[in-house]
Amino acid sequence: MRGGEVKDALNAFVRGMKEVARNWGNMIREEPAERQKDEWERLAEHAGVIDSATFSHLLADEYGSVYHKGFARRTNEMMFKANGLEPWNRAMRVAATKSAVQFMLRHNQGRDQHSARWMKELGFAVGELPLDADGQLIARKDVLLRERPELTVREAEAIVDKVNSAIVRWVEGAILSPSAGQRPAWGSDPHFGMFWHLKQFAYSFHHTMLTRAKNEAGHNNYAPMGALAWYVPTMIGADITKGLMLGAGELPGYMQGYGAADWLQHGVERAGILGVGQFGLDAATDPVGVVGPMADQVWEAIVDPIERTVVRAMPVNSLYSRAVL
């Protein structure tokens, strides 16, 4: 969506898996293993792309609830560490920092027809980035002063702040960062918390990914649209693999009768490419479910057998519900 390359996504995936494995190892050790931060992690911290307090807040908003307090919030944050989401998302932001720098260096040379527009979005003109003797981006004041001694300290600070702001802007356009600005006003009202539950991801995805793809299409750049199209077969493949693994080689009952149209609908829904429009489609097929998981569970308790209701209310029931019911 932000002009990165396919290899960037692969590198981000590898980094993410390594961080998750390292985090799990640290959770069972008495003392965390010593590790050296690479240049991209140090740059991400320096630029403000990753910050522990802000990071935990973003995760809670995206995958949990904006209304968690006290024990519930602490439990939620511990869960994110245990299931790997916190190290995974931290790794994604570090990887996005690397992609941002490479993107800026690439388009600072004006190689693409969209280079000038993209660089303007980040606050620079083509060829304006501060580079060292090796052609690498300068994001630290001390380095810039060594390379350009004619600058005053204040001038160097202004240039470096502009560079770091551009890096953060690029990352925020490539990674989901939920905020009140991405959701409707009622989504921030605790009186509607029961109905808002788990809807933030759809709004953040719509705001960050779909809006960006639409904007690029308006400039005759359809590459992001093509990337979104790949989300559908990717999610279908991932769900088939997950279903076969959980079912010991057998797909869940609701998938076994799927035809081509059913798989396409399933893939579109799971890929999220309809954004907030998915709520409307869900309402047409499951008007109770679109209200929220609590309302959905109350309705199931009324119409389903008690044993099904109890099992589906248990934690991580997807791992054992098919064997029990």
Structure report:
There is one protein chain. By secondary structure, this protein is an all-alpha fold. Helices cover about 65% and strands about 0% of the residues. It has helices at about 5-30, 40-45, 50-65, 70-80, 85-105, 115-120, 140-145, 155-170, 195, 200-220, 225-245, 255, 260-270, 275-285, 295-305, 305-310, 320-325. Helix 2 (about 40-45) crosses helix 5. The two termini are about 40 Å apart.
Task: Report strand %.
Answer: under 5%
How is the main sheet built?
none
Percent range for helical residues?
55-70%
Categorize the overall geometry: globular
**Record field, number of beta strands:** 0
Helical segment tally? 17
Please, what is the average pLDDT?
83
Q: What structural class do the secondary elements suggest?
A: mainly alpha
Radius of gyration equals: 23 Å
The sequence of SSEs as H and E is: HHHHHHHHHHHHHHHHH
Distance linking N and C termini? 42 Å
Query: Which residues sit in consecutive blocks of at least 5 with pLDDT less than 50?
Result: none
Characteristic terms for this protein:
single chain; 325 residues; 17 helices
Question: What order do the helices and strands come in, and which of them pair?
Answer:
Blueprint: H1 6-28, H2 39-47, H3 52-63, H4 70-82, H5 85-107, H6 115-121, H7 141-147, H8 153-172, H9 193-196, H10 200-218, H11 223-246, H12 253-256, H13 260-271, H14 277-285, H15 293-303, H16 306-312, H17 321-324
Helix pairs in contact: 1-5, 2-5, 5-8, 7-8, 10-11, 11-13
